[in-house]
Write a structure and sequence with these properties.
29 strands; seven-stranded mixed beta sheet; alpha/beta; single chain; six-stranded mixed beta sheet; 5'-nucleotidase,  domain 2; Purple Acid Phosphatase, chain A, domain 2; 489 residues
């Protein structure tokens, strides 16, 4: 039978287009960020030849310019790097996530430093579902203000998302008790979340996997995790050492864009018939202001938080008659001052502080809350320690003397090596119990000599920053503290 003219035309068009013309291509884009830590706006980036980049107003423009079906996901840690983030407990970041809007966000390890009431307040302010799949309260109940998983729609597809926080990649799949919460075994919780998402009809399963910022997880960790867990299509992680997309078993592992300086753009190729993930492409996009511009609505939200922070951090907390530099003649006057403050506030015999605790010194004159935050940006709490004299001497002998400051103690070195320690009343008495004040950052870890030699210890739950502020508030003018706490011969 001869072919009609319209049929010939259609057949010729298909032949010219090639074998892929009959196959419908279906794609979804996921933008992923993490560890913004309160960085809300653009700044000059040295890694980008000092071009202005970063911030949620730029990301909003990038997100709005995407033409494919899309989602934005965030891997958490919302507050710790800036005064604005710290002041609002991450609310400033959540407001930005709401305005984009993101599809879901995971609570990160640093966010879990918030007590349950503060985290609940943050969740109630969020229009974005906040996820924490392996998180429990100390009562072994799930926090009802957080979700274990969520099913989101992108185009005509259901994208199932859940999260997990890994406290220690070196010791995975173990329950971990935090100050306010308990982290359950991640594989067990992943199995529950994946089943719930599959039962809900999710076409693709995405996991937001947060790694403790104090530790590191290489590719082998992810391969081991996938081999012991349920089938997951895509793992998005905030681990900084993961730079490129790779395959771990049947799962893709992709890095999120970090510190609000960049965003990861993931293009998911889906099978049109089933919605299954059949391919993935990843790129990290610097959030360049000159390339994408900035969203005016988000700039207004950010400006509001900047103004509130400016008012708060300009408040006077004290006055210094002489500067307290970070480093001077091999010591740290600002660390000496903080050690004296801890000892006075805690009413202890002595205090010890790591020189890594202060990040900046103080100029002479009026001291503001902003200067206080800049000098002590870590959220370290003061810990009370009871320890016998001989054990204290053993602990001090195991610490590098060039890395600490003390109050109520003198440490004597001979040829740069610990020789002995004395209290204000003379040599340490072996059997006598001494009370110390130290930051919790100084006693963290099982191998810490102070912790391992202590009789008992208790966390005051008061930030070192607050204790130093208390010292400023108690005196009209403060002078430089006495030196010569570590005596070298």
């Amino acid at each position: 039978m001869p072919l009609t003219s319209p049929f010939k035309t259609a057949l010729l068009a298909l032949l010219l287009l090639g074998p892929g013309a009959c196959a419908k291509k279906e794609q979804v884009v996921i933008f992923a960020t993490g560890r913004s830590q309160g960085r809300l706006w653009a700044r000059e980036e040295p890694s980008l030849k000092n071009k202005r980049a970063g911030g949620f107003a730029v990301f909003k423009r990038l997100y709005d310019q995407e033409t494919l079906p899309k989602l934005a996901l965030d891997a958490g840690n919302w507050s710790s790097a800036t005064p604005e983030g710290w002041l609002t407990d991450g609310r400033s970041t959540i407001d930005c996530l709401n305005a984009v809007p993101y599809g879901a966000a995971a609570a990160g390890m640093e966010d879990l430093s918030l007590p349950p009431k503060a985290l609940q307040k943050l969740a109630e302010a969020s229009a974005v579902p906040l996820l924490a799949s392996n998180l429990y309260l100390k009562t072994n109940k799930k926090p009802d203000f957080l979700r274990s998983s969520v099913i989101l729609r992108a185009g005509g597809r259901k994208i199932g998302v859940f999260s997990a926080v890994i406290s220690s990649p070196a010791r995975p799949n173990r329950a971990k008790y935090l100050t306010h919460y308990k982290l359950e075994k991640e594989t067990y919780e992943a199995e529950k979340a994946v089943k719930a998402l599959r039962d809900g009809g999710a076409d693709v399963i995405v996991m937001l996997l947060g790694i403790n910022p104090k530790e590191k997880a290489g590719p082998e960790f992810f391969r081991e995790f996938v081999s012991n867990g349920p089938r997951i299509d895509l793992i998005i992680t905030d681990e900084p050492s993961i730079k490129k997309l790779f395959k771990a078993g049947r799962a893709w592992v992709a890095p999120a864009g970090l510190e609000a300086a960049s965003a990861a753009r993931l293009v998911l190729d889906l099978e049109p018939a089933t919605g299954r993930l059949k391919g993935l492409r990843h790129e990290t996009l610097p959030l360049l202001t000159e390339k994408y511009g900035q969203d005016q609505g988000l700039l207004k939200i950010i400006a509001g938080h900047r103004k509130a922070a400016s008012v708060h951090f300009s408040k006077r907390v004290g006055f210094l008659g002489a500067p307290l530099p970070l480093r001077d003649n091999g010591g740290s006057p600002v660390a000496d001052f903080a050690a004296d403050c801890m000892r006075r506030w805690a009413r202890t015999n002595a205090a010890i502080i790591s020189l890594k605790e202060p990040a900046a010194g103080f100029s002479s004159g009026t001291v503001t809350s902003g200067a206080l935050y800049s000098a002590f940006p870590l959220d370290s709490s003061v810990v009370f320690v009871k320890i016998r004299g001989d054990d204290l001497e053993l602990a001090l002998a195991a610490v590098q003397p060039a890395e600490i400051s003390v109050s109520g103690l003198k440490i004597f070195l001979k040829d740069g090596v610990f020789e002995r320690a004395e209290s204000e009343n003379g040599p340490l008495v072996p059997g006598r119990v001494y009370r110390l004040a130290v930051p919790d950052s100084f006693v963290g870890g099982k191998n810490n000599p102070v912790l391992s030699n202590a009789m008992e210890f208790a966390n005051s739950r008061r930030y070192l920053r607050e204790v130093v502020g208390w010292c400023f508030s108690r005196q009209n003018s403060i002078s430089r503290p006495d030196g010569e706490r570590i005596v070298r011969n």
